[in-house]
Design a protein that fits this description.
23 strands; 6-stranded antiparallel sheet; alpha/beta; single chain; 678 residues
Amino acid sequence: MEVEPEVAAEQLKEEPMFGVLDITLLLVLLGLGGWWLLKSRRQAEDTSSTTKSYSIQPTNLGTQSTDSSFIKKLKSSGRSLVVFYGSQTGTAEEFAGRLAKEGIRYRLKGMVADPEECDMEELTNLKDINNSLAVFCLATYGEGDPTDNAMEFYEWLQNSDTDFSGLNYSVFGLGNKTYEHYNEVAKYVDKRLEELGASRVFELGLGDDDANIEDDFITWKDKFWPAVCEHFGIEATGEDVSVRQYRLTEHPEVAADRIYTGEVARLHSLRNQRAPFDAKNPFLAPIKVNRELHKCGDRSCMHIEFDIEGSKMRYDTGDHLAVYPINNEELVNKIGELLGVDLDTVITLTNTDEDSSKKHPFPCPCSYRTALTHYLDITSNPRTHIIKELIDYTKDPQEQEKLRTMASTSPEGKQLYNQWVIQDNRNIVHILEDLKSCKPALDHLCELLPRLQARYYSISSSPKVYPTTVHITAVLVEYDTPTGRTNKGVATSWLAKKNPSKTDSLPLTAPIYIRRSQFRLPTRPQTPIIMIGPGTGLAPFRGFIQERDQLKEEGKPVGDTILYFGCRKKAEDFIYEEELNEYVKKDVLTMHVAFSRDQGHKVYVTHLLDKNMDEIWKVIGENNGHLYVCGDARNMARDVHNIVLKVVQTKGSMTESQALAYVKKMEAQKRYSADVWS
């Protein structure tokens, strides 16, 4: 081995008892020992604090369930039906619960399961249970993606070559036809399970949330059960049995510090905030700004800024902000008045199924008031299973018959439900007001009503410009119904009241968290972009423009930034007009604006796109640029898609099939992105 001169000279000197290497090794060993002792102590402290935390809150969290074996649970409780759900807003979970509950009528005792909490490889062992059946209620979310809790199962299924011979299954999908990837997750799972050898007991069901997903589910379910009976050679028991899922406990005397007051999961989490913040642990963000964007008119659009300084929350341009709203106080009080219940009564609802991972329908113990204010959806149209449960609580024969008809699956029943509940837009409060003799037990109603969900808004700021605040742009939702009532959007009507002023002694706050998105600017700033966002569809593009402006200020080369915006009238609802004009003056932005009602004939964004086909092709065809769409999925996004196909076909000299393939490739490369809603 070659030795350098300086080292060789040192080696000629008399060597000490301990060399440098010996001392280094000794120090490393001492350091490791110290680290191990410190780690052990911290773990003990963590365990201690965790035990304390969970002991004062009985709500089921993912960390509480340690046994992921659903097969063991099925066998120990004599069940043969397991219904898995992939749910983002709670509807798929609700449908799964209804199927599992109905299984009793067909001698199939059922269990609801979250695939995220189960060892899904155990599906191969389900065949060991007699007359076993796995049902999957799966929602498609975003651009054809599985929901968060079904992601791992979906990816495993894609990469698995497991033999599912002997597995009996059925799939019901929840989607929306206004989106391109309609029910893609359910279609894939249904097909993939069959490819891997499983036996389909009944055909794939597809629910369309843009139409009447409740009707789709009932229609599928009414054919599903006879198919199940035929497959297993079993018969229905006959009578419908109303089985309560939760047991009520009232707490006349309970310490205030043990009662939930609106927390999503951990008790006192809104008072004692601890990062990281997410869906189960939202950050209580102070609202710094809440200003009106419309210049005049009877509509309202709010620009709201949330302060996230010190929260360690990070966001990217194009992400979504989730806001947990609360229900209108008048509606909550009305339920208490109509049912003659003291809403300050503290209760716990406990699952009668001891094997269920869901111990409570919402955080317990809490008061009825808290449940109705923070945890339950009291403004949506109740589904037919709720209508059905109300029958036994109704005394008037005519009102009883009306409910019975609406809860039935007959054509007349479906028509009446669609008209009286859906078209007339009645929520549970309206139903109780209009059916005077209907007085359900409030604890049963709390069991039946779906959970109040977070509302998502496209973030309208860039973290490069606003690292400590998150901005959203929201239209105030308020409309009259056919019954003469005024319905208000839960979140926007609540946020509208949160208008900060210098005289406020305490900051106005809202529980929030960041939801990641795939709606992203190109990694290379030189890449040209086209943004199409009428109305509040402008929101994410405000962040995009801010970011491109910042990059230009830093002296970096930035590609063409082109915006297509539309609104009704320039003098009324041209939101962020001054900001946008300033970007145009700075040569950061090229802007095309359509004012639909400022002239005799209506002009929309799509008309402007049709006129500027050369500009569009220059960006997406000649310069490999990106195209973004944000806003209404039902009409606008579909029309834009058709125009893009027309541009590619006409300016790119392609056939229809070549143009389709080109646009598909753009989508796969994330060069054509949509952030749309219906």
